[in-house]
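Let us practice reading a record.
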Amino acid sequence: MLGGMSTDELSRTTAPTDDHPDAARTPLLRRPWVVPLALLTLIFVGYAVPPYLSLDPALARIQPMPPHAVYYPLLLTHIFLGSVALLTACLQVWPWLRRSRPSIHRWSGRIYVATALLASGCVMIISPMGLHGANQRVANTMLAVLWFVTTLAGYRAIRQRRFADHRQWMLRSVALAFSIVAFRFWMFIAFAVFVPGIYAGAEVDSVALNQAIGATSWFSWVVNLLLVECWLHRGIRRDQRKSSRMTTRGNPPETERVSAALVKPASSKSLRVPT
């Protein structure tokens, strides 16, 4: 207990350095992914969204359209809300904005949470309607559930002022959100493996096509999530090493001598009893 407050309570109410506005600023060159991520998001949204602005199912990139009346309206809702989620996610992972403009960070975070929860809910409903086999349907359903859960956990953590937990959950959520961007990359690889004739205009076997889309649906979010988990655990290990070094340096000389004496085995002279 410290001043009537337990260390557990302090960990819940104290934000890490990155979440304090007065924390030392990190140059943009130390965050080389901020600008490329924003440009990639703008390019992707500009490419993916326009075919759906006319609201005409015949112009949708997803063809053929599953024969369910609610599929296309929910797909449109997911696409529009998901686009907003991607754009606001770029603001959320920008450390300078979080420190220097906390109000913008908070409001963009609220927009991200609202759009991500609704967009993932739409995917939960339409995923079982997919036409490319159980592999695709299960992968997309699990993606939607995990996106919903990680976003909700991140929001709950910030409401409880658990800043470190909030950061970790939201990074997982953003990684899952960008699975739709990674889907395009993995799709080209999966097509080259399962249906290479598609690039030459040859007839494509439906079973092989389903395998390609199913594999793409898994890789698009599993790889993203694994990369974020590796990055988070590397940061935790780095912080632990830093903490241990600080603790060692902070020991007074008397404490170090006492510790050495306790560890050092007694010599034979000290054990000799005079006769």
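A brief commentary: The chain has a mean pLDDT of 82.
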